[in-house]
Design a protein that fits this description.
CATH class of the largest domain in chain B: Mainly Alpha
Pfam families (chain C): SBP_bac_1
Membrane topology (chain A): Multi-pass membrane protein
Oligomer: heterotrimer
Protein name (chain C): Extracellular solute-binding protein
Largest sheet of chain B: 2 strands, antiparallel
Strand content of chain B: under 5%
Distance between the termini of chain B: 33 Å
CATH topology of chain A: MetI-like fold
Structural class of chain B: mainly alpha
Number of strands of chain B: 2
Chains: A mainly alpha (277), B mainly alpha (309), C alpha/beta (452)
CATH architecture of the largest domain in chain B: Orthogonal Bundle
Number of helices of chain A: 12
Order of helices and strands of chain B: EEHHHHHHHHHHHHH
Radius of gyration of chain A: 23 Å
Order of helices and strands of chain A: HHHHHHHHHHHEEH
Domain ABC transmembrane type-1 (chain A): 73-262
Shape of chain B: flat
Helix content of chain A: over 70%
Structural class of chain A: mainly alpha
CATH architecture of chain A: Orthogonal Bundle
InterPro entries (chain C): Bact_solute-bd_prot1 (IPR050490), SBP (IPR006059), TAT_signal (IPR006311)
Largest sheet of chain A: 2 strands, antiparallel
CATH superfamily of chain A: MetI-like
Amino acid sequence: MSSPLGGGRRATIGRTVALTVFTVWSLFPIYWIVQMGFKKSIDTTAIPPKWLFAPTLDAYRDAFTKAPMRALLLNSLQVAVLATAVSLAVGLLAAYGLVRLRTGRAANYEFWVLSTRMAPPVAVALPFYLLFQKSQLLDTVWALALMHVVMVIGMVTWIMIETFHGLPQSLTEAALVDGCGQWTAFRRIMLPLAVPGLVGAGVLAFLLSWNEFFFALILTSGHTTAPVGLFNFVGFQSVDLGALAAAATILLIPAFVIVLGFQKFLVRGLTMGAVKG
Amino acid sequence: MAVTAVKGRTWRRRADAPGSAEREAVRLRRLMLTPMTVLLLALTVFPTLYSLWLSLTDRTAAGENTGFVGLRNYTDLFGSAQLRHAFWLTLVFCVAAVVVEVVLGFAIAHLLHGLRREHRVLRALLILPMAATPVAVLFGWKVMLDPSQGVLNYLLGLIGAPQPDWLGTPTAAMGTMIMVDVWMWTPFVIVILLGALSSLPQELVEASHVDGAGWFGRLRHVVLPHVRPFLVLAVLFRGIDCLKAFDAFQVLTAGGPGDATTTLNMLAYRTGLQFLGFGKGAAVSVLLLAVALVFGKVAMRFIRREVRA
Amino acid sequence: MPKHPPDRRTVLRYGLAALGAPLLAGCAQSTEIRVAGVDVTNLDAFTSANIDWRSEQGATLVLGAEQHPWITAMSPYLPQFEKLTGIKVSLQVSGEDQYVAKMPVVLAGHNSTPDVYMVWSYGQAVQSGWLEPLDSYLANANDPAWYDEQDVFASAKDYVRWRGGTTYGLAITAEAQVTFYRDDVIPDPAALGTFEGFQEAAVRAQESGKVSAGVALRGKPTGDAVAWPAAGYVFSHGGYLIDPGGRLAFDSPEAVAGVARYADIVKAACPKGVSTWSWLEITTAMQQAQVAMLQDSSNAALDIGDHDKSRVADHVRAAPFPAHNGVSKPNLYHWIIGINKRSRQKKAAWLFLLWATSRQGCTQIAARGGTPPRVSAWQNTHFQEIFGRQPAEAALKALRSADSKPVTLAWMHPKWPEIGDAFARAVNSVFTSGTSPHSALAEARSRLKGVL
């Protein structure tokens, strides 16, 4: 598929150069962190930096002994999956409900949904802590997942709203005229068409939850998630850069796999405008 | 009684009364909005009210609060040079970061859009800056950016370029913070705009070729109108997130040098959680929330002008 | 064109996946750290004391801490404590920034755990009502002869004594400000005894080309970074941060002179970028032979003397902190642990405090590289092997003779976080924005108006 802006051969070379520069710029810091995890302690912070070195798994061994990586990863996974599932379900329904609402009330409601994303975490740390403390839900997967749902629901819902707006009304109208019920029209026609958008929003929600740090820190203690666990390596007068890099690389793998696997939805699915016409 | 077959199943229309379809639609809509409403009411009303109430008190952890002080926290803040400085810094950071991210994201989305499907690995790789755990990546940046120990200046030195003190002077520090945010979040914009570009009907593009429109004309009259809602979406989300930006500032500069990168959120954190001035900290947070609300309202106006399909 | 809408099976699969999620969420995995323990069979050193160790057996204690060398040295002995007392200890460790962000929320929320925790700002904690007074425990549930309070550094005891004489916590570490230098680069260590000599030696080392910069100093503008080393300069020049009258004093001529000296050395002999430097960067600079000297906490010896991390481990020596007009007042620090005022296990918590800070407890922690606030621990041969004999002697000398008054007045003040932050930013702005020390500190004072 050619770029909508067209252009000849010189433009193609220019495009390749630009893309290469951007790729190097984007990936170099990632590469730098990953390679830090494979160096010996004395080489991690070598001045000048070392490019060629004998790789070692010492840092990975440290990461696994200094922090309970398996438990941390499992907790992160549970929270992320739960948060994604709930936010998709709630957001999907709400988005469809809003899209069919043609009055100004829709805009207000949408704004309310969006405003969940506006509060600075610091402001809501204490009230949420108290809320979950009183309900005996501190340090559980449920509490944190719920918190993450609140965090991503705005984005998920808005993406779904845009997705539904991109689908033509004519399809449902035809079905309704034929005697199909509202819910059935939604379930059998609109929903399947919106799945790509749903998956796209889901991947973004998953990533945001997987990497979330502040609320995981505040709301959990003995059963925490990986990003918080990472900070076991950044202590007072004791920073273990190698182990930090190793743990960060381990955390990166599931995120990368999911992005790679779902990236076609991520990219194409945020709108189903291709259905237009 | 009308009977129809859709996808192998049959329905009977419940009643032939006019308006029943609309009533059913309304009922369904209400039902679908209920989970969201319950969620938001249960979880967002209390914290917001609590913060608002807190901002009107003098409360500290030490319990030496004098109780309700009305708007005194706010008047103190508006008179505080530190807060005005933080407000300005936040504005500068947000505007610069969002503008660069959206423009750059738009450009890169175009470049990626032109690639074939075999290049999906590249596309996935370019999303990595956003997919990696921020706290770890920021530590990596911290190490890389060190003027005398880090690899960035080392590389610049190899090619004879100047080796700046990235975080060491007020202007350079803010510039670097913007750069790091751009690095991390441009992929978000790219993702949104790639989706928008994929939905651009090919016939329109081809038609403009036939009409002899140039590169710029095509951009203005074909591409931009179509992707506008998504551009606004990107600006909206990035703007709101930049207002709350915290992790990078905490890890890279701690608000320094001096106070040169102490944004509103950093100030709220310091006042509330470090100095335990809960009341005052809440006031700063409420201020930040107000800015975000205003921004959201304004931005939404740009979205609503679109005609729905 | 889109593919056919997903068929029933796909939708079913997605649906099941979404439903399966809550099932997974049933069991959150415990992420507490369990460290492999050491030999726990010989408990004689503790059981010989006149203390009923088993009075709270069966209880569970939660210990909240930052990742710190003390935790690394102490945690292998937790099984010993559990065997001795029958109390189970649950260790919750965070990174430093995270710990000080989270604890205020937890404690302000009146949580009963952690029962024992490392106190990062003592004055603030006491005034906020977060610490249990310990005087009655010290008097009644103790064996003074066995505990041996005489062995504890005077400064450590002063540190925890609050106004009115009540003790709210016990010190667990001790560190003093010293100058580390490389004996293969600095020819004349005796010259390091004055600030002028120290600065000159740094500049000369830099000019010799053997190192890229003379000295590594912290510059990060926070109360827990640049404030500490810069305060030593202020104290040695005769100034205070908070004077004995309880007033802000960091814009007095003496304090300004001290800050000016610190900034001069930073500008003349420190590597570029020092304005964001904290512990990691200064130790890296020394370990990687970037600098000739490091002037900060004695705890640096553990990092720069470690052959696995440091290229110069064999050449590191310690010299006393410089003097100004014959007066040397290096800064000190003692980490403190205390009992949560809302804890439901105070007696068990007290037993832990007793165990960890007793003479015997500190000796074994020192043997693993912890730096307890006791003379006996610092003279322990195992400890000196790990720490380095010469640095240990230099630090011990500083700790025994140090004047803890200036630092206690400042760091133990209830508003220290705010004061320390303003001071740190002022010092930092002197060498990043070229502000004069006097105007920077005066501005800090005006910012703190109404705080005291």
